[in-house]
């Protein structure tokens, strides 16, 4: 490393960061828009100004690659590949997430929403994350995988083991042997199950899910979809399509329970748009305030709490140089709560997303990432979130029994305890 490099100011160590990631990010962001966190192997550099984030994710994105730690789980899925291979996989997957296909998925999402609304009784207490994990797993299996929902428990248990492993790698450094063993067992289970699904699709061509599309593309396609690459792609979509949605809905209910005015305005929109019916794909465009509620929940509690990139060359960011091979950290948790861009940054005010004009930088809000590698499934996720929130809020009001919780930095931002909620049927 050249001694002439103008490195960002050092604010702490990765060991200190790992003790309390969310608190450390908030604290260290006060020291500047680009700060350095020293590590034993590579330094991390936290960037919190939207204009600089735009440079990293969009303008100068060729100087960065995704964090290498993701490859142990996602292999050669779209999240981790680059250049021509990424372009080929993106082109293959893109039709599955175009508007007409998402609208067809939305009809199935609506049916699943109806089933889940019917499951809730007046006065019932439930674990919000558990309920919504089950819901989003059913949506994912029955749309993207084109499978029945009876594999949900196996997939969910495997996903929990992998999430726990990510949590340990983020906070403990050395992963405890039992967590490593559980992770390997979870990956084996998940791999075996997805390979069985692939074999089923190979034997019975057809279907309109992503899995069927990739099997049909096959190893001779532009993207070279071997069984191994299909497996990696489906594991990538599994985490992108179910855990983030489940967490978004969990935090949305938590926020709504303590915001009666927001709840009344939301229900007024639902009364007007739905008129007592369950939401359908045709209602999505009219659920404007519903989407603002979701966006505000994503701002305050974005499941994707940070984006990580590694530099492939020395790169200038703002007034500083970040050396080749170091890690860049772009924390939604900090940027989405920065008082420079958000009035009352910790307040739950969905109407802020309905403001006609604002001088807020575009990259002050990036829950689905940004730039060329923005989440391919954003339209799918938004349809799912709007339909289930509308279906539940039109039939129930919610009381949250869990008043406080701490955030944990795993692959996603997860609560350290169950979020207990009581459903009260609307009169």
How would you portray this structure in words?
The protein contains 15 helices and 13 strands. The strands form four sheets. A six-stranded mixed β-sheet has the order 1-2-3-9-6-4. Helix 6 crosses helix 7 and helix 7 (128-143) packs antiparallel against helix 11 (227-257). With 427 residues, the chain is α+β, with helices and mostly antiparallel strands.
* Structural classification: alpha+beta
Shape: globular
Percent range of helical residues: 40-55%
Oligomer: single chain
Biggest sheet strand line-up:
1-2-3-9-6-4
Sheet-strand content, in percent, reads 5-15%
Number of strands: 13
Mean pLDDT: 91
How much is the radius of gyration in Å?
21 Å
Uncertain residue ranges: none
Q: Give the SSE string.
A: EHHEEHEHHHEHHHHHHHEEEEHHEEEE
Largest sheet: 6 strands, mixed
Distance between the termini: 67 Å
Number of helices: 15
């Amino acid at each position: 490393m050249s001694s002439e490099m103008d490195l960002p100011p050092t604010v702490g160590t990765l060991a200190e960061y790992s003790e309390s990631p969310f608190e450390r990010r908030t604290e260290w962001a006060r020291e500047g828009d680009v700060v350095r966190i020293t590590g034993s192997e590579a330094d991390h550099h936290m960037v919190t100004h939207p204009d600089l984030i735009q440079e990293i994710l969009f303008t100068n994105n060729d100087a960065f690659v995704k964090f290498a730690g993701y490859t142990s789980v996602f292999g050669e899925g779209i999240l981790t590949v680059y250049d021509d291979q990424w372009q080929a996989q993106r082109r293959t997957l893109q039709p599955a997430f175009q508007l007409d296909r998402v609208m067809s998925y939305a009809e199935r999402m609506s049916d699943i929403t109806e089933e889940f609304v019917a499951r809730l009784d007046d006065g019932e207490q439930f674990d919000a994350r558990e309920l919504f994990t089950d819901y989003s797993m059913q949506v994912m299996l029955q749309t993207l995988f084109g499978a029945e929902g009876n594999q949900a428990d196996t997939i969910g248990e495997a996903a929990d083991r992998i999430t726990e492993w990510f949590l340990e790698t983020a906070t403990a450094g050395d992963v405890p042997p039992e967590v490593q063993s559980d992770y390997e067992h979870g990956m084996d289970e998940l791999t075996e199950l997805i390979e069985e699904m692939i074999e089923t699709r190979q034997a019975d061509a057809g279907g309109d899910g992503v899995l069927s599309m990739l099997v049909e593309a096959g190893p001779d396609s532009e993207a070279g979809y071997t069984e191994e690459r299909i497996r990696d792609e489906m594991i990538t979509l599994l985490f992108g399509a179910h855990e983030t949605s489940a967490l978004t809905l969990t935090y949305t209910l938590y926020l709504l329970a303590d915001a009666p005015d927001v709840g009344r305005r939301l229900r007024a929109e639902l009364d007007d748009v739905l008129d007592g019916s369950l939401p359908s794909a045709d209602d999505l465009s009219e659920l404007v305030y519903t989407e603002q509620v979701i966006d505000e929940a994503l701002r305050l509690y974005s499941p994707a709490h940070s984006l990580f990139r590694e530099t492939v060359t020395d790169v200038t960011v703002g007034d500083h140089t970040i050396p080749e091979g170091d890690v860049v950290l772009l924390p939604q948790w900090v940027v989405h709560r920065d008082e420079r861009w958000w009035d009352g940054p910790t307040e739950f005010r969905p109407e802020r997303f309905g403001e006609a004009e604002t001088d807020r930088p575009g990259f002050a809000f990036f829950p689905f990432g940004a730039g060329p590698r923005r989440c391919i499934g954003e339209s799918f996720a938004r349809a799912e979130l709007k339909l289930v929130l509308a279906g539940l809020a039109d039939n129930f009001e919610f009381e949250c029994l869990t008043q406080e919780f701490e955030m944990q930095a795993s692959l996603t931002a997860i609560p350290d305890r169950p979020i207990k909620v009581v459903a009260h049927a609307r009169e």
